[in-house]
Design a protein that fits this description.
This protein has 3 domains: 8-97; 132-232, Hypothetical protein, domain 2 (Endonuclease III, domain 1), CATH 1.10.340; 242-330, Endonuclease Iii, domain 2. It is α+β, with helices and mostly antiparallel strands and 348 residues long. It is built from 16 helices and 4 strands. 49% of the residues lie in helices and 9% in strands. The longest helix is centred in the first third of the chain and has 18 residues, at 57-74. The protein is elongated. Residues 77-88, 94-104 and 331-343 have low confidence and may be disordered. The protein has a 4-stranded antiparallel sheet with strand order 3-1-2-4, with helices on both faces. Helix 6 packs across helix 7, helix 6 (132-142) runs antiparallel to helix 12 (222-232) and helix 9 (172-179) packs across helix 10 (185-202).
Length: 348
């Protein structure tokens, strides 16, 4: 039970067959979110509840104000029909418009066709055979480093240091020289030595396949762990990097602020059969079409399913109303960060 003065905003994403929509319910204090959800389920037994989002307190009150004012601009027909003044406290429901804080259902409705287009246009290399140790090391090298630099550094490194035992025996300075000029090469050389020691002592020289064990390794987060599980061990893992995070938010498939949130949200709505291939396909799409800045929407055959136009309209209208945009519209693309000054190589 929430405090009597607490404002709640409960978002229910619902599905009937292939139809999906979102219902936003406003409750003033004293309401228990579980009661609201259970009541909805009792009244709508033919509908599957596929996602629940709950906000409370000041953040919920601010978003309710934002949604109420913005809905009048974006979809007055919906706002007029349901509105925030109904006895049920429903802000609005929609099966059509992927606007406001709603999941865009066109992509979800047609995800099989969307995925087929991705697989026919780009290369799904998730099933290629890879060495788990080298996969882990390459992913670590790639952080804050462009792909061509990563690829060249990995080739130099693995020619001399192909496994954990060899890396454990190598000098840190040797590793740093081989991986230069990847970003933060000295820190990464130190990190790789620590990881090699743990793998050699506890895991027979290879990374573990369990997510919890992988994330215990120094500097290994969910993205790197899921990449190893997916690409090296071919397990049903969903690796979410900046490309996957950006594109699925632009589609309106999720409404999230971090890649980790995106991973968990996608796992709730996408069948496992799509998890492994989604990363390599969307990385290529993000590099070639759905770029961080100046996306090539005119060249995208998925535009009919995409919510990006509506999200840009939301962003524009929010600015006019002096309201903050949803954080999912404020991506920090790597290309927008100031380039670091070029280091003079200590190995030249």
């Amino acid at each position: 039970m929430t405090d009597a003065n607490t404002t709640l905003l409960i978002g229910l994403t619902c599905r009937t067959g292939r139809q999906s929509w979102q219902m936003l319910i406003q409750k003033e204090g004293g309401a228990d979110p579980a009661d609201v959800i259970h009541r909805y389920q009792r009244q709508n037994r033919g509908n599957d509840l596929v996602d629940v989002q709950i906000r409370s307190g000041e953040s919920a009150a601010e978003e309710i104000t934002f949604l109420s004012r913005l809905s009048q601009k974006l979809c007055p027909d919906l706002a007029g029909n349901s509105g925030a003044q109904t006895p049920e406290g429903i802000l609005f429901t929609t099966r059509n418009r992927p606007t406001l804080s709603l999941h865009a259902q066109p992509v979800l409705h047609h995800f099989e066709q969307v995925y087929q287009w991705l697989a026919g246009t780009f290369n799904d290399h998730s099933q290629d055979e890879r060495d788990p140790f080298q996969t882990l090391v390459t992913c670590i090298l790639s952080l804050r480093t462009r792909d061509p630099v990563t690829d060249a550094a990995a080739k130099r490194l693995f020619r001399e240091i192909p496994d954990a035992q060899t890396m454990l025996e190598a000098h840190e300075e040797t590793i740093a020289r081989l991986i230069y000029p990847v970003g933060m090469y000295r820190q990464k050389a130190r990190q790789l030595k620590r990881i090699a020691a743990i793998l050699a002592e506890h895991h027979h020289g290879q990374p573990p396949s369990e997510l919890d064990e992988l994330t215990k390794l120094p500097g290994v987060g969910r993205k790197t762990a899921n990449l190893v599980r997916s690409f090296a061990y071919h397990l049903p893992a969903l690796c979410v990097d900046t490309h996957v995070h950006r594109i699925t938010n632009r589609w309106g498939l999720v409404r999230t602020t971090t890649p980790d949130e995106t991973e968990l949200a996608l796992k709730r709505i996408l069948p496992e059969e799509y998890w492994q291939g989604l990363n390599p396909l969307l990385v290529q799409m993000g590099q070639q079409i759905c770029r961080p800045t100046s996306p090539r929407c005119h060249a995208c055959e998925l535009r009919a399913y995409c919510a990006y136009d509506q999200l840009c309209e939301e962003h524009r209208l929010a600015g006019k109303l002096n309201l903050p945009s949803h954080p999912s519209l404020k991506f920090p693309p790597p290309d927008e960060r100031p380039a670091a000054p070029r280091e003079i190589s200590p190995f030249e």
